[in-house]
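Comment thread on ticket #2218

A.B. wrote:
> Attaching the input chain for the structure job we discussed in standup.
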Amino acid sequence: MFCCMPVMSRSEDYLKTIYALVSRDEPVTTSGLALELGVSSPSVSAMAKRLQTEQLLQRPGGGWVLTQQGERAALRVIRRHRLVETFLARALGMGWDEVHAEAEVLEHVLSERLEERIDTALGHPTHDPHGDPIPPRHGHHTEAVGQPLDTAPPGCRFRVERVSDRDSAALRYLTTLGIAPGVIVDVEESTPFEGPRWVRIDGVRHALGAPLTRILRGHVVTSAEEEPPEGGCQPAKARTAPTDLTRRRR
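C.D. wrote:
> Ran it. Output below, let me know if you need it in another format.
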């Protein structure tokens, strides 16, 4: 079993990365996967062939697409990853900037029994510390990705729902600003020539550079949630990636 773990973990990393790219409506190409995973294009091609042989991946057009079996496999490892992050944060008190690296290792070795014990012990959480939805073991899962903060119009209020877990330094900095899932920020102007976006948090003004505004995702607060600011704006429509585990592909 253990001799196969490195190959299995690499396969699972590819599957969840492809799933994430599709969820963000980004093209899944060999070069794109190589950049995302930090490997060479020949390595991607070799793994893609393996995944095709295992009927987990297909290439009907110009990009890679998960098969129904591949999508299920991706969601299984994503579920384990997000459950582990939640357990480490809640049960062990680790910071949200620490849990991702540990989950990257543990997601590949967690047994189904321990996975379910963790889920039960935590009270069946629906989201991890970064706001990412935890796929259920069975049934429908929707990966609501939201819109990045850098696309929100000036003058609106923006509710943060998800924060990328890949940059621990960025997470630590956001903590000092009080930004986390559920927080509402007042969106102000952007500085020209790709300068920072100005926001207010609890009345305090902060400048957020593009690397930060792109990893903060959520939605513009509507009038149903809160009265919009004077001359308010229309919320942008969030993208979703429906992944009903029981549906048949059309």
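A.B. wrote:
> Thanks. Noting for the ticket: The first strand starts at residue 57 and ends at 58.
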